[in-house]
């Protein structure tokens, strides 16, 4: 399992980091773990699946 930071996810999805945090808070993108500072870390596979589904539904 490869973990991605909020910044990496934001870059991959083409959105701002605050959008990624909101997606996690709203349980639309589930954090797999937390870093030492308490920031969410995301499984790369989950992020890729989220992007695919979001694109099918009309965008992120």
TrEMBL record:
Descriptive protein name: Helix-turn-helix domain-containing protein
Coiled-coil residues: none
Pfam family, one: HTH_17
Superkingdom classification of source: Bacteria
SUPFAM superfamilies: Putative DNA-binding domain
Domain Helix-turn-helix, residue spans: 3-52
């Amino acid at each position: 399992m490869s973990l991605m930071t909020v910044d990496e996810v934001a870059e991959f999805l083409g959105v701002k980091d605050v959008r990624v945090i909101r997606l996690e808070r709203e349980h639309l993108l589930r954090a797999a773990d937390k870093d030492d500072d308490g920031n969410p870390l995301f499984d790369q596979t989950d992020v890729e699946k989220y992007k695919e589904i979001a694109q099918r539904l009309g965008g992120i």
